[in-house]
Amino acid sequence: MEVQPLFSIAGEAALVEVIARRPLLAFDFDGTLAPIVPDRAAAVMTPTTASLLARVAELYPCAVISG
Q1: Full residue range of the structural domain in which residue 44 is found
Q2: What is the pLDDT of residues 41-64, one digit of tens each?
Q3: CB of 25 within 8 A of CB of 63?
């Protein structure tokens, strides 16, 4: 599959094709879902991020990666 800008007709068509395959969505925790903090045990997602992740996880398989 050729890489296309996401916000184009071809990019949107490619995204629809990928979504139809039920991909696993993997998210990095530190620095992506939660801010980087000096003590990694203190890293937490904001309530907004947690809510959005929960909504996405209802639609697609999700994994959170850390370490």
Answers
A1: 24-65
A2: 899 999 999 999 999 999 989 999
A3: yes
Report d(CA 28, CA 5) in Å as an integer. Answer: 23
Residue 4 lies inside a defined structural domain of this protein: no
Find the largest Cα–Cα distance for the chain: 43
Q: Are 42 and 48 in contact (CB under 8 A)?
A: no
Quick check: is 17 in a domain? Answer: no
What local confidence, expressed as pLDDT, does residue 51 receive? Answer: 97
Asked whether residue 38 is domain-assigned, the answer is yes
Q: How many domains does the chain have?
A: 1
Burial string for 28-63 (b: 16+ CB within 10 Å, else e) reads ebeeebbeeeeeeeebebeeeeeeebeeeeeeeeee
